[in-house]
Design brief:
heterodimer; A: about 110 residues; mainly beta; 7-stranded mixed sheet; 4-stranded antiparallel sheet; B: about 120 residues; 6-stranded mixed sheet; 12 strands; globular
């Protein structure tokens, strides 16, 4: 069974731009969560989607948003990029909310 | 709110030896999961082992085992017969055991483990 896939793997943007990251969960998994990893803040929860609905949201500004499609694939969007948004963005999928999560390889976002 | 603390930023061990990584957590919840994830230089986060809080028996997965002390809120990871491929950052993580609360993982700061030949 294929693992979690994330595209693109690397991205370079400039301040003020917006970006969309994509995540395809493991087949049969219906819950997708997003995390931001930075050297300073560590791993922080962004949000979780299940059945096309956002169930949980972390403490991030409204510039960070996401959605989930009927096939469970998810996208996250960051608008008006800031230098501090440079990070590794990890997507994780689970069968249902509250079950163990399996992570994708991440998208490395660099904001110049 | 839950917190997870890993007090050892770095550790090293000789190949074939045993090493224990520490983790403590703070929560008022009674039902929860605890996990250890490893993140090698590739940055791929890999699930190593999980423990359900209601289970008294410590989880084991091949060379990996945990020492779960619920009253002390301690969850250490023991790696036996360490291999070079075990070199990675190890994260301890907490998750409430309720479908309604979702899948939010709270991570510790991580312990960088280096296995030396």
């Amino acid at each position: 069974k294929a693992g979690v896939t994330q595209t693109p793997r690397y991205l370079i943007k400039t301040r003020g731009q917006q970006v969309t990251l994509s995540c395809s969960p493991i087949s049969g998994h219906r819950s997708v969560s997003w995390y931001q990893q930075t050297p300073g803040q560590g791993l922080q929860f962004l949000f979780e989607y299940f059945s096309e609905t956002q169930r949980n949201k972390g403490n991030f500004p409204g510039r960070f948003s996401g959605r989930q499609f009927s096939n469970s694939r998810s996208e996250m969007n960051v608008s008006t990029l800031e230098l501090g948004d440079s990070a590794l963005y990890l997507c994780a999928s689970s069968l249902y909310p509250g079950r163990e999560q399996f992570f994708g390889p991440g998208t490395r976002l660099t904001v110049l | 709110a839950q917190t997870v603390t890993q007090s050892q930023p770095e550790m090293s061990v000789q190949e074939a030896e045993t090493v224990t990584l520490s983790c403590t957590y703070d929560t008022s919840e009674n039902n929860y999961y605890l996990f250890w994830y490893k993140q090698p230089p590739s940055r791929q986060m890999i699930l190593v082992i999980r423990q359900e809080a209601y289970k008294q028996q410590n989880a084991t997965e091949n060379r990996f085992s945990v020492n779960f002390q619920k009253a002390a809120k301690s969850f250490s990871l023991k790696i036996s017969d360490s291999q070079l491929g075990d070199t990675a950052m190890y994260f301890c993580a907490f998750m409430k055991h309720e479908e309604t609360s979702g899948s939010r993982l709270t991570f510790g700061e991580g312990t960088q483990l280096t296995v030396n030949p």
